[in-house]
Amino acid sequence: MEGVNVKLTNQQNDVLTYLRTHNYLTSLNSGTVIGVVDLRKRVSELRRLGYPIGDRTVSKKNRYGRPVRFKQYFLDEEVTDGIQAFKSR
User: Which residue, among 61, 67, 65, 72, has the nearest Cα to 26 in the 3D structure?
Assistant: First the structure.
């Protein structure tokens, strides 16, 4: 989000960079992919700063065949597009 005059932490910046270049990020892979273990906390901080991060709950089976649920976080493009359109007025 442009125009925000807040210094982001390295982990916050890593989360945003990853979300801008990939479809989504989960707590299952954030630790190994970008070194962020507490993804929920970083997403919460970024949302408080006004970044439009959406989430959805995904259900899959684990390696033992048992159902598991987890969150996928993504940049909400509709919100991002709306912010850009508003700024360009």
Answer: 72
Please check whether residue 71 is in contact with residue 26, taking contact to mean a CB–CB distance below 8 angstroms. yes
Give the whole-angstrom CA distance, residue 47 versus residue 39. 12
Q: Is the pTM of this model over 0.85?
A: no
Query: To the nearest whole number, what is the mean pLDDT of the chain?
Result: 87
**Which CATH entry fits the domain spanning 10-87: 1.10.10, 1.10.760, 1.10.287, 2.60.40?**
1.10.10
Domain positions in the chain are 10-87
Integer CA distances (angstroms), 73 to 9, 33, 64, 86, 88, in order = 18, 14, 25, 24, 27
Q: Are strands 67-75 and 25-26 parallel, antiparallel or unpaired?
A: antiparallel
**Calpha distance 47→57 (Å, rounded):** 18
- Give backbone dihedrals phi and psi of 72, rounded to 5 degrees, phi first: -110, 130
